[in-house]
Amino acid sequence: MKATVAEPLRRDGFGEYKLVPESLDDLWHLSHLISWGDTVFAVTLRTVDGPNDKLRAEKLEKRPVRIGVKCEKVEFLPAVGRLRVFGVIVFGPDTGQHHTLNVETGYEISVVRQWRQVDLERLERAVAASVHGVVHIVAVEDGEAEVYRVRQYGPERVVTLTIGSGKTAEIDSRQSLFEELLRALAMVTGPVVVAGPGFVKEDFVKFARSSVPETAERMLLADTRRSGYGAVQEAIGNGVLTRIAEDLQLAREVQVMDEVFLRIGQNGAVAYGPAEVREAIDYGAAETVIVADALVRENRTSKMIEDAERLGAGVVVLSTEFEPGKRLAGLGGVAALLRYKIAT
């Protein structure tokens, strides 16, 4: 989750946060952070009347406008990766009419409400789990490479490397550039997007795989028509950050389910099925609760998650569209990694 406070909150906690969900977990968090009576702002498509619109009604087009909706109901739809916010428009065109905001990953909203301490703690957990804060984009071409760190306000240049690409020493100069670039990337963590036109970026990734395979494993290729900063902007505009978020979320789901089955095989600190997980939560033993998306809206499961979070446990929501979620469904749709083993 990306979160930015619009201005310092009032003493009573009232204020506005700009929020960008990056995963299914973030949408789940938002379903608890947005409540009845809160005002949610977003850019949406609406038909805006102009001075001549009545004369050419058949040509009306929807335009992007910012509206504010006073929330009446929130609906989390994990199967389609969406959060729906129903309410009455209180800011913007068509004030007084009902409208539904469909919030998906990468969609920015602003929430105006009185933020309780428990809300801020949930927001901190979601932000701490963000996958975008450590993304770097490398724009590489013959003779030059630039490394950018992705910030919430845009790409920030970290380093520029330039090595001559003359025809007489093309192979040596390219290898020297690749070596310098790998040394620069050794100082960063997280995913690395390698972007640019032509085949230089592919050659660099091949070189990285043979030289530093552990770094190459974190690389993702993005083909662009532009080079330099333009390549970075084009890669972001083409949705590379969303691809990374999806890949990392799926990797996280695979890892957590692998750990569940590892502990089951070792008769370790794990619980699965509603009854066992409920007992683990009651004992305060649950460290991470894993839930299939199809169950999160059931009253029993929702209460279980709330109790787990109140006791300091993390929550991971798995999509049953993917293999990890299907494996979890085979265990009853809910499991928990425990702080300690519970005697049976």
Q: Biggest sheet, strands in spatial order?
A: 1-2-7-3-4-5-6
Give the overall pLDDT as a whole number.
86
How large a portion of the residues is in β-strands, by DSSP E?
25-35%
How helical, in percent, are the residues?
25-40%
Instruction: Report the principal-axis shape.
Output: globular
> What value does the Rg take, in angstroms?
24 Å
Poorly predicted regions are 165-169
Main sheet characteristics? 7 strands, antiparallel
Distance between the termini: 38 Å
Give a count of the beta strands, DSSP E runs of length 2 or more: 16
Number of helices: 10
- Classification by helices and strands: alpha+beta
- Element order: H for helix, E for strand: EEHEEEEEHEEEHEHHEHHEHEHEHE
What is the oligomer described by this structure? single chain
3D structure, described in words:
This protein is α+β, with helices and mostly antiparallel strands. Helix content is 35%, strand content 32%. The protein has helices at 24-33, 117-128, 170-185, 200-211, 213-216, 228-237, 240-265, 274-283, 299-310, 323-329, and strands at 2-5, 14-20, 39-47, 62-77, 82-91, 98-103, 109-114, 136-141, 144-151, 154-162, 192-196, 219-223, 270-272, 286-292, 314-318, 334-338. The strands form three sheets. A seven-stranded antiparallel β-sheet has the order 1-2-7-3-4-5-6. Strands 10-9-8-11-12 form a five-stranded mixed β-sheet, with helices on both faces. A four-stranded mixed β-sheet has the order 13-16-14-15, sandwiched between helices. A hairpin with a 6-residue loop joins strand 5 (82-91) and strand 6. Helix 1 (24-33) packs antiparallel against helix 2 and helix 8 runs parallel beside helix 9 (299-310). Mean pLDDT is 86; it is low at 165-169.
